[in-house]
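User: Please fill in residues for this 271-position structure.
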């Protein structure tokens, strides 16, 4: 092989090797959250609180200067859970009786009767019951405490601690839920998070890009509701790792290996 031919062949091999190396490089995916927000900018976001819905369990405690009077409006604390044996080591004082919101959005409250609480947040339910007690001359100095007991959201997919998490505040954002789950792994798709919500007997699906502040804050799924399911999809790198050995024709390792082989062969030929 002449020197000229060797030179041309060497040039071609170098070009091919460089092309393969460039093909193996994947453009950095969006990793940082809320990237498009400049500093010192105030963005107004309407807070959507958690409200009572059919099937929810609610603890309602009425207090008064007259304990005997208030006791009439409080459910008795269960001595033990139905279907479970008594356990002397269990702290039964921590048991809390609750009301279950029926399919019509109502609860059956002692003496006051049926109360419609669907769509009301905690403080509104407490204010509603207090006003009814005063209006009907039952307890004039009532202090009503309301807590939601069984509310939670599920977080699945590419997060560090998937699971179901209790809602322990009056409003919960998507970012709050992801934080509870230990944040996304490096393999999670930040621009395509799925939120599944149960509404009116069906399911509604929302796609959220947490890298885009406008998209995130304008999404109906920015504030979560009880029983929402959050799913973080795996990115292409994780998807390729799910193959037998991850070395299919689309993987980075395949192209790197091929480029290395060509470079080695070229060195041996022109040594």
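Assistant: Residues filled in for all 271 positions:
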């Amino acid at each position: 092989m002449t020197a000229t031919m060797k030179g041309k062949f060497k040039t071609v091999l170098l070009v091919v090797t460089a092309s393969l190396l460039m093909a193996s490089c994947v453009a950095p995916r969006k990793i940082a959250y809320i990237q498009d927000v400049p500093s010192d900018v105030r963005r107004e976001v309407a807070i959507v609180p958690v409200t009572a819905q059919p099937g929810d369990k609610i603890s309602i405690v009425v207090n008064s200067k007259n304990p005997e009077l208030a006791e009439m409006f409080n459910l008795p604390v269960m001595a033990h859970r139905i279907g479970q044996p008594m356990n002397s080591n269990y702290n039964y004082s921590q048991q809390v009786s609750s009301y279950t919101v029926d399919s019509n959005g109502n609860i059956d409250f002692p003496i006051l009767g049926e109360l419609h609480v669907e769509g009301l947040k905690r403080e509104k339910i407490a204010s509603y019951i207090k006003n009814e007690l005063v209006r009907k001359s039952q307890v004039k100095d009532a202090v009503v405490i309301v807590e939601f007991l069984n509310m939670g959201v599920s977080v699945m997919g590419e997060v560090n601690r998937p699971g179901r998490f209790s809602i322990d505040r009056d409003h919960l954002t998507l970012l709050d839920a992801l934080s509870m789950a230990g944040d996304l792994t490096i393999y999670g798709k930040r621009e395509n998070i799925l939120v599944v919500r149960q509404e009116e007997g069906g399911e509604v699906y929302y796609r959220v890009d947490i890298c885009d502040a406008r998209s995130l804050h304008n999404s109906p799924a920015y504030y979560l509701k009880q029983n929402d399911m959050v799913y973080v999809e795996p990115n292409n790198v994780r998807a390729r790792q799910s193959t037998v050995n991850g070395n299919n024709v689309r993987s980075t390792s395949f192209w790197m290996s091929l480029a290395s082989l060509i470079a080695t062969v070229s060195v041996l030929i022109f040594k």
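For context: The chain has three domains: 3-29+248-269, 57-82+91-148, 152-234.
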